[in-house]
Amino acid sequence: MASAGPPPASGAEPPRPSLPRHSVDTANDATAVVSGTGTVVGWTQSAQDLLGYRAAEVVGRPAASLLAMPENPVRVAVIAERCRAGVGWSGGGEVRRRDGERIAVDLRVSASFHLDGRETFLVSARERRPEWAVGQSVLDAFLTNSPIGMAVMDPQLRYVWMNDTLERFGGVPREHRVGRRMSEVLPGMEAGAIEALMHSVLETGVPVIDYEYQGWSWADPHRRRAYSTSFLPLTDGDDTVTGICYMVLDVTDRWKAQQRLALVNDAGARIGSTLDVMRTAQELADFAVPRFADLVLVDLLEPVASPGEPGVRSSGPGPAAFPAAPLPGSDARTGASSSRPRMRRAGMSSVREGCPEAIRRIGERVDFVPPPHDFRFLVEGEPVLIPVLNSFSHLMTVEEPERAARIREFGLHSLIAVPMRARDTVLGLTTFVRSVNLAPFEPDDVLPARELVARAAVCVDNARRYTREHAAALTLQRSLLPHTLPGGMALDVASSYLPADAKDGVGGDWFDVIPLSGARVALVVGDVVGHGISAAATMGRLRTAVHTLADMDLPPDELLAHLDDLVIRLSEEEPEGGASDTTVLGATCLYAIYDPVTQLCTMARAGHPPPAVVSPDGRVSFPELPAGPPLGLGGMPFETAEIALPEGSLIGLYTDGLIESRDRDAELGMSRLGGALAQRGLSLDALCESVVEQLLPVPQPDDVALLLARTHELSADHVVSWEVPADPAAVAGVRARTARLLRSWGLEEMEMTTELIVSELVTNALRYADGPIRLRLLRQSVLICEVSDASSTSPRLRHARTTDEGGRGLFLVAQLTRRWGTRYTPEGKVIWTEQELPPGAM
Prior knowledge:
- By secondary structure, this protein is α+β, with helices and mostly antiparallel strands.
- Helices cover 30% and strands 28% of the residues.
- It is built from 21 helices and 36 strands.
- The strands form seven sheets. Strands 12, 13, 16, 17, 18, 19 and 20 form a seven-stranded antiparallel beta sheet that branches.
- α19 packs antiparallel against α20.
- The protein starts with 29 loop residues before the first strand and ends in a 6-residue tail after the last strand.
């Protein structure tokens, strides 16, 4: 029985006579109450089940009438005297059932007691079976130590009789109970609810079976216990309930097992809700307080708390496997003592606000390992149980005075330390401590502690592995994205890239700004299906391919066609067994070329959303571009479209993560994007940031890439173009005009080099190509020289022999320029060169 209050004062009402300690009560006995004159005055349902008589047929009759043969009067007198002396009696006999059958029974008669002023005895009978052929002393010992407690309560619910087991359950002496109600003796337990149940049994005569509750025993007030109780009515001849037979079974072990199982099951739903190492550690601490401990500390090895490094393998590492520090007082030079692994506090929780018991805070270094303070404990040790913490031990008082002081100040009295390991990897240590809960940890508490830590360890290891992969993918992706956006004098450029949230990982979005010949600039945005390292690697392959194709000065539709062929070829090269990490599962792309001389933008798309265009007067539009198929389908052509972008126009290229989400379709997203881009008075960088903030859903389900470009016109004073007559003598005139132009631009230093370049290119065109021939010079961040003709034959750079009279023209051009190349147009081709401007020439 449970109790939270003190026993009654010694000056209270004198207790009524109690039954002797030698008494017999089990749940299966047929029990009756017999008066001192031998008359049955109480009859239970179990007695009716054994003999077949209802209470109305038995109560008021002599008890001897139920015996199969007359009882010896001398023997009856001896039994009566023995019971009046407080000893009780047990023995064998035969009784007659209602149907006349005679059965052998074991009889038990309690010491006499008074019920409603009458001397009475409690008589129990149990059918004797052959397997019960054991000695009387064995039976007496069994009954004395029976796990079932029993009491008889009168109609006023006062204790009339109780056995030893019930006295032991509650820890309250028998003399303080008999004659008193339960609520008077055990005020701190569920006495009110239990007495209400007994009142119900008194009124209805219906027994209550297996009512369970929790409480404390006075014998062990710090441990919560569980009991299963049953209340059986005692009836008289008129079937009137005259008392209660009250039986109690201690089911604490079963209750604790259920609690531990529920604790472990609930942990699976509460721990590991995120893929964050520190958050998972904190979830373990929060879950276990106060359900299991009053203070929980989760310490992770430094490489685990910062998941850029691998954890420690538990398959036989040496001391060097740990980033370790020597124990206080050890010889750091010889390493004579064990070393403590360097850990960091990753999570902690306490029943006291702010965890004042903890010496270290979250993120701080921790070096505590429980006895024997050996790093091998984390690798291969079992959980450590310290039922009673001795804060005055040599280690605590001499080597760790601060920790000893906290133990004394906050009453930390019991500890379990469990190594955290998962998949043969050592992760850290979890420590459970009790202080407010005065019940010390038991050996049975080690198993749930181990299970809690094991579940959390798997979640921590998953988070650690994911964080490492996610960081690697993010690093790879950022290394593949452009670090600068060279828009030159043609474009002002701003960009924003945000990877997917931690749940879904990094994706394959990319963007690029690629300078082309003739002061033109290519704008690219693409999206690879999927997330993670494979998507980032695929994105890198496609971005490299786009750069290579852009260097060939291909128009947008041809570039996408070549890119489509590349994706198909990569897919065909995959093994038959399935896709590899670099398989291109699908990709979209938009490629646009802006020419600041003509202010025209030529673009094509492969399954990608159209760009957003904001005119100088603030009008927003989404040009109707031909909808090409996503990359990798093959067999379908790509088409180009051309739009005018006057000075000050804004063009925005983006991925679908910016305009689509689970609760928003693309059309609504494009409408919101247009509204955000129409903001006035913001710098390009500020506008880019504002657009992402307004449109980005939270949480972010996909990568988001946004590329904004504001156009500039290359004015007439920066561009000069001349027709070249089809006459070799015209070369001299072209050189002279070039020299005068460079002087007007303030580029006198470049006259000689540029004249030589112009001379070689024009001479080659006159010699090998068809007219018309045109020379164009452009001054922006570099000096561009272009010679166009109607021929589609590309010049070839070769190394002339020492005896050759020619063939060195393009070689000289290559040596004198930063870069040079050829691009093809519908009218023919253009040979172009770029030269660095002198410092300060801009």
